[in-house]
Amino acid sequence: MSDRKNRKDEQLDQYRTDDSGKHTTTNQGLKISEDEFSLKAGERGPTLMEDFHFREKMTHFDHERIPERIVHARGFAAHGEFQLYENLEKYTKADFLNDTSKTTPVFVRFSTVAGSKGSPETARDARGFATKFYTEEGNYDLVGNNIPVFFIQDAIKFPDLIHAVKPEPHNGMPQAASAHDTFWDFIANNQESAHMVMWAMSDRAIPRSFRMMEGFGVHTFRLVNEKNEARFVKFHWKPVLGTHSLVWDEAQKISGKDADFHRGDLYSSIENGDYPEYELGIQVIKEEDEFKFDFDVLDPTKLWPEEEVPVEIVGKMTLNRNVDNVFAETEQVAFHPGHVVPGIDFTNDPLLQGRLFSYTDTQLIRLGGPNFHELPINRPVCPFHNNQRDGYGRHTINTGQVSYHKNSLSNNTPSPASEEEGGYAHYQEKVEGRKVRARSESFKDHFSQATLFWNSMSDHEKDHIISAFSFELGKVGNESVRKQVIEMFANVSLDLAKPVAENIGVDAPTSGGSDVTKSSPALSQANSVQSTKTRHVGVLLDQGFDGSKVQKIINSLQSEGMIPMVISQKQGTLKSKDGETVDVQHTFTTIDPVLLDAVYVAGGNMEDKAFKMNANYYVSEAFKHFKPIGATGNGVDVLKEHDMQHAAGVVSADGAEQFVKEFSQAVAEHRHFERQLV
């Protein structure tokens, strides 16, 4: 047996390779002199098509997985509509942004980035937020994330980033997690990622739901109006319910308790008529102001602070219909940042430039060929005509003998449309420069906005960032990598680097720090919208409860927009002391406190030891995760057992009206982090 195995190994030896200590080459064996920058027309110019190394590297990466998406594999989607608040013709000639009477259909896919299709939804990760507008001028795709910046500045490095964050190739672990050696080795050696890492280690990377998650276009685009006047623009989605998050212990437990937590929340909200809403915001900078800021507006690792460039709210998107078939719609939808309409154009952001190539290339392998645009979910609502023919997945039956331009047999049709006829014309930007593989000097500040983000956080958010770094780096086995990361983030803040160093057992930095004092309050979730709408409240109820009082409270919570759910030891009905009955919606075994936004102990006989044990567990878990807790009647005894009746966010008012008032306020605040500071 061993001889046979050795012969097989020898047969495979010619295919084995060890890349350590070797020069980088193309797949044709050509040595490459630069692997950091794509080829551009000048340092801040557009990426050139002749960059064979970029195209080969990106094409190979795009085709690494079939049929699952390489990134954003774990996703869920819904249909909806977009309504414009005000005419934006001063900025853009895009028709759907010029007519407030029009309702534009949309399709939105939310996703995690790093994990496979079967990975946990509550993993610490960036979230995709991709929107397809079905406009009368063609499909427009706003393909963004829930974080406004990205890890890298040039698309040629995207395969490197994803290879580093994906499960390590020698053992296929860990799944959907960045807490491992290769990811943090990449971060330490690619310091342009500092700002994005701060966001990824913050609460933004573990959102409460898709409905309470901001979206960003990430890149700088252009808006162009009828006068051919251009402005730089960044796009924002602002959730009407505010931006809120889980806490890390809770997120980990949800991964085991309900792997479909985020998709289940979105699906049930739409089915119940609690339609998720997001307002569209734009930040606009005039072309003549391109260089007036202390950051490069084309750098995808930089944001535009809202205090310097205000966000104008211009419309609202409502998701009001679930998909009929997850595969046909959610899995087959194809987004592309290059799907634009007249009035929306690109900039020379080198990450965006590369994405304009990569997305089409990816769909060719994932969806089987060049006709993915004919799948129902991708098909535009307006007609399309061109001379493209045949190929895998062709649905269109073209008639006539002509399939070329120019021609006389069909009077030279289909023919290009003029700008006046709605034809797309690229904005004419003057481009000059040598063909170079380089990065603009204005892109080389990697730490000031990472510090701005840190400065903008509340005390509890800073504590969570320190804990996240400590957890992630605590999972890194290589001590040198841990030290490198600490040295890197000492450039952001010593108040961050020192406690993390202590937690992971490496020497704390003695030098570093930042002289950046600027902050942006808009970046802190502590300043987000507070609302009781759609908050899930577990009502812990036993036989013999105060029927009239409890029912009044439940009805009042519903009127405040909350979703009370009666939880007890067994399913069926519960009888109050005055003979009223209430249906039990969940037992303690079918729902866990980590799946709730708040807990209300309504009490009852409470003679069942199992009920009391479970009530104590629910209250202690909710308290640990800083959630609102309420109690009435003998439910208050549970609070007293834990000596928490006077803690922040814990309500035990006597009268029903006063209780609902105080409890509603506590629920609207979402979390009560004062508890961790005591």
Automatic annotation (TrEMBL):
Residues reported to bind heme: 69, 109, 158, 355, 359, 366
Chain ranges passing through the membrane: none
BP GO terms, sorted: hydrogen peroxide catabolic process; response to oxidative stress
Enzyme class: oxidoreductase
Biased composition (Polar residues): 511-528
Listed Pfam families: Catalase, Catalase-rel, Catalase_C
Catalase core domain mapped to chain residues: 25-413
UniProt EC number: 1.11.1.6
Name of the protein described by the UniProt record: Catalase
Upper taxonomic lineage: Bacteria, Bacillati, Bacillota, Bacilli, Bacillales
